[in-house]
Automatic annotation (TrEMBL):
Subcellular location: Golgi apparatus membrane
Comp. bias intervals (Polar residues): 98-108
Trichome birefringence-like N-terminal domain mapped to chain residues: 108-163
Matches recorded under Pfam families: PC-Esterase (PF13839), PMR5N (PF14416)
Alphabetic keyword roster: Golgi apparatus, Membrane, Signal-anchor, Transmembrane, Transmembrane helix
Trichome birefringence-like C-terminal domain: residues covered: 165-457
Keyword Aminoacyl-tRNA synthetase: no
Predominant location category: Golgi
Family, per entry: Belongs to the PC-esterase family. TBL subfamily.
Protein name as annotated: Trichome birefringence-like 26
Residue stretches of biased makeup (Basic and acidic residues): 79-93
GO cellular component, one term: Golgi membrane
C-alpha cells in the first residue's frame, strides 16, 4: 500500500523490534537482552509507516547554481501575499534579543526550547491552502483535504523568561539571505520544514522554481528574484551519510549505511551553500547494515535477524552520521573566507496512538499539557544531535557556525498538528471505512511546524549580525 504525495511506505509483517542495542563504541560485546525497550508501540508503527522509498539512480543532484534558469511554468500563484503580516506586526510582538546557538560567545537571553504553547484565537496564519497550494505537499494540505477543525492553528509558542517569539518576517529573512543559498538536507521532515518556509516567504515575494528532479521531486531549487536573489534548495538525504536504501520489490529488506562517507549528492555542492539545515531521524529506525572504513568492514546491523551480524545501537549510528557530516563541512570550509551557518533541527516525534490504518490514530485536537516530559527514543535521538553539534563546535573553525534548532519538546506537545486521515482528500466523505490511512509524523501546512521557522529566523538573525561585524 502506498501513500500518495509522500514517501511510499510498505508495511512489513510480524513483530518489529526497533529497540536500541549495543553501543557502536563497544560494537561486538554486550547482549541486547537486557536493554530497555523505549516506546515499543510507536516504534512498531513508525517501522510500518516508514518502510520504503529507494534511491533512484537517475535522481541526480541539482546542477550548479550557475547552470540553473527560471522555469516560469512553476511560478507560485499567491494572489494575496501580505494580507495578514501587517496585522500581526501591529500586535506589538517584540523580537527576542537573540537565538540560542552552541557558540558560547553569543548572547543567550532567550532559550526557545523552554516554553509552552499558549492558546491565542488571534494567532491565525500567514498563508493557506490557496495562497501556497503549489508548494504544499498534498499529504500535508489539511485544509484542502477537508480537515474541519482549525483550533490547531490558534496556538503560539511562548518562551519562558523572554519576550514573545516574533511573528515570521519574510522581508527580514530575505534581506539577510540576499545573494545567498540556503539548503535543506534530509528526509521528508526536512522537506516539510522547507515547504513551510517557502510558504512563509511567499507572503513577501513569489519564488521561481529553478529545478526539480528525482522521484517525488526529491531535489528541487527555487530562487527569489531581485533585489533578493536568494536561492533555496532541498536535497533528499535521509541519512546524511552515504546509504543504499531498502527496496523490498528487489528483495532488499534493509538499508546499508557507510558511516564514514558523506552523501555526495549534497556534499559535492557545499561550496555553493551559505546556510544549511539538516533534518533527519526516522529512517534510522529501519533495519540496516552498518559499514566502516570506506565500506571495507562491517560494524554490525540493526534488526536484521538471520544475517549473522552483531546487533548495534542505532542511537550511536545516528550520532556517527552527524559526526561524519558536520566534520566534513567543518573541514571543507577550513581556511575559507565564506562563512556558513549549519543548523541541525532536532528530532520531531510521531504521535501514533493506535493502528496507522484505523480511524483515530492521532485524534487529538489540542496540545499536550506543559508537564509532558521528553523521554525515551525522542530524548535519546535529540541528545545525540545536541552532542554532535557541541563536539564539532569545539573545533573552532571561525568560518562555520553551528546551531541547534531544538524543536523536540515543541513537537512532542503538539499531537494535534498532524494530517492524520486528512493526508488524503475528504477521507470520510462516504463514512468511516474499515481502513483509514493516517499520517501522524508529518505536519499540516499551515501548522505547528511554522513555529520551527520562526525560531530559525532568530538563529539566522544572530548569525547575520556576527557575520556583518566581521
Amino acid at each position: 500500500m502506498t501513500f500518495p504525495g509522500k514517501e511510499h511506505h510498505h508495511h512489513g509483517h510480524g513483530h518489529v523490534q526497533n529497540t536500541p542495542s549495543q553501543p557502536v563504541s563497544s560494537y561486538l560485546t554486550r547482549n541486547l537482552g537486557n536493554r530497555v525497550l523505549y516506546v515499543v508501540l510507536p516504534l512498531l508503527l513508525l517501522h510500518l509507516y516508514f518502510f520504503a522509498h529507494h534511491l533512484q539512480p537517475s535522481a541526480s543532484p541539482p546542477p550548479s547554481l550557475a547552470e540553473t534558469s527560471v522555469n516560469p511554468s512553476f511560478n507560485i500563484n499567491n494572489e494575496n501575499k501580505k494580507k495578514n503580516i501587517e496585522k500581526k506586526r501591529e500586535k506589538g510582538f517584540r523580537v527576542p534579543v537573540s537565538a540560542s546557538t552552541t557558540d558560547s560567545s553569543s548572547p543567550q537571553e532567550c532559550d526557545f526550547t523552554d516554553g509552552r504553547w499558549v492558546q491565542d484565537n488571534d494567532a491565525g496564519y500567514l498563508y493557506n491552502d490557496t495562497t501556497c497550494r503549489s508548494i504544499i505537499q498534498e499529504g500535508q494540505n489539511c485544509m484542502a483535504h477537508g480537515r474541519p477543525d482549525t483550533g490547531y492553528l490558534r496556538w503560539r509558542w511562548q518562551p519562558n523568561g523572554c519576550d514573545h517569539l516574533a511573528p515570521f518576517d519574510a522581508t527580514s529573512f530575505l534581506r539577510m539571505l540576499r545573494n545567498k543559498h540556503l539548503a535543506f538536507i534530509g528526509d521528508s521532515l526536512a522537506r516539510n520544514q522547507l515547504e513551510s518556509l517557502l510558504c512563509l516567504l511567499s507572503t513577501e515575494v513569489t519564488p521561481d522554481m529553478m529545478y526539480h528532479n528525482g522521484e517525488d521531486s526529491r531535489f528541487r531549487r527555487w530562487r527569489f528574484p531581485k533585489p533578493y536573489n536568494t536561492t533555496i534548495s532541498i536535497y533528499w538525504s535521509p541519512f546524511l551519510i552515504k546509504g543504499i536504501e531498502k527496496d523490498e520489490s528487489k528483495g532488499l529488506n534493509y538499508n546499508t549505511l557507510f558511516l564514514d562517507i558523506v552523501d555526495e549528492r549534497w556534499a559535492m555542492e557545499i561550496d555553493e551553500m551559505d546556510l544549511i539545515v539538516f533534518a533527519i531521524g526516522h529512517w534510522f529506525l529501519h533495519p540496516a547494515i552498518y559499514l566502516d572504513n570506506n565500506g571495507s568492514s562491517s560494524l554490525g546491523c540493526h534488526f536484521c535477524g538471520g544475517m549473522n551480524h552483531t546487533e548495534v545501537d542505532f542511537y550511536d549510528v545516528f550520532r556517527m552520521a552527524f559526526d561524519t557530516s558536520l566534520n566534513h563541512i567543518n573541514g571543507a570550509n577550513d581556511g575559507k573566507k565564506k562563512n556558513k551557518l549549519v543548523t541541525v533541527t532536532t528530532f520531531s516525534p510521531s504521535h501514533f496512538l493506535g493502528e496507522w490504518d484505523k480511524a483515530g490514530a492521532c485524534p487529538k485536537k489540542e496540545p499536550e499539557r506543559d508537564d509532558v516530559v521528553v523521554e525515551g527514543m525522542n530524548a535519546e535521538m535529540r541528545r545525540r544531535q545536541v552532542e554532535a553539534v557541541a563536539a564539532v563546535t569545539k573545533k573552532k573553525n571561525r568560518s562555520v557556525e553551528f546551531a541547534i534548532l531544538d524543536v523536540t519538546r515543541l513537537a512532542v506537545l503538539r499531537p494535534d498538528g498532524h494530517p492524520g486521515p486528512y493526508m488524503l482528500p475528504f477521507p470520510f466523505a462516504h463514512g468511516v471505512g474499515e481502513r483509514v490511512q493516517n499520517d501522524c509524523v508529518h505536519w499540516c501546512l499551515p501548522g505547528p511546524i511554522d513555529t520551527w521557522n520562526q525560531i530559525y529566523l532568530e538563529i539566522v538573525k544572530n548569525w547575520w549580525k556576527k557575520w556583518k561585524q566581521q
